[in-house]
Amino acid sequence: MANDIRIRRLDLGRFIRPPAETGGPHPRVEPVLAYLVRHERGLLLFDTGIGTGSPETDAHYRPHRRALPAALAAAGAALADITLVVNCHLHFDHCGGNPLLAGVPVLVQATELATARRGGHTIDALIDFPGAAYTELTGEAEVWPGVHLIPTPGHTDGHQSLVVRQPDGTVVLAGQAHDVASEFAADHLARHAALDGLAQPLPPYPPWLDRLADFDPRRVLFAHDHAVWEPA
Question: Quick check: 44 pLDDT over 80?
């Protein structure tokens, strides 16, 4: 039953985002986080960590990788236990462990997969590896009872987030829909200001926040921030 769903965060390493990408004068060290969802239907893995890079990519981001098998073992699981993979998007720091899970279905938005296959989007070897088994989606999907995929474009056109209903409230695995929890909080407040009818100018917010709000999330978790958003 949906009441049995449990979520475990996995630490898959870190990388250093250069100042040109942080919006400030300094680099920023960011974690690489994945999430293991235990459900009566099996084990769902949301993102798979940093993959084998190129010399240029590694020089740019200086990643420290934690092996996916070790992270799973710390959570009481193994590669062979994974039933389903969901990638929020296909950049190398989110789909890097996919080749270790050959044959396991990977749910991805069709737009995201098409973009990745055009090149210049990620590490190509992480996409069409031997045994890659994609299920392409074009919008929302209920993956398992109580588990929904919602398109959240912005970071990439095909970005998606996972909504998980639990007894103590809904959890959103937001991936990189926002880089950090404070950015999500700012957009959440901007949406409420607009709904309250406050006069313009007001900051814009992603339209998909309206859809996430339908699920009344109690917690929102991110791929590159240990902080957790919770409503006031």
Answer: yes
Mean pLDDT of the chain: 96
Average pLDDT over residues 68-73: 97
Query: Does the pLDDT at position 56 exceed 60?
Result: yes
- Which tokens go with 100? 């270790």
With a cut of 90, say whether residue 112 has pLDDT above it: yes
pTM across the whole model: 0.96
Rg value, the chain, Cα: 17
Q: How far apart are CA 34 and CA 147, in angstroms?
A: 16
Q: What is the pLDDT of residues 157-167, one digit of tens each?
A: 999 999 999 98
Q: What does DSSP assign to residue 130?
A: T
d(CA 2, CA 132) in angstroms, rounded, equals 28
131 Cβ neighbours under 8 A, 6+ residues apart = 99, 102, 103
Contact 8, 36 (CB under 8 A): yes
The amino acid at 106: V
Cα–Cα distance measured from residue 39 to residue 9, given in angstroms and rounded to the nearest whole number: 15
185-194 long-range Cβ contacts below 8 angstroms, 24+ apart: 185/229, 188/229
The SS3 of residue 201 is coil
Residue 229 DSSP one-character state = B
Gap between the Cα atoms of 35 and 82, Å rounded:
12
Alpha-carbon torsion 97, 16, 226, 217, what sign?
Answer: negative
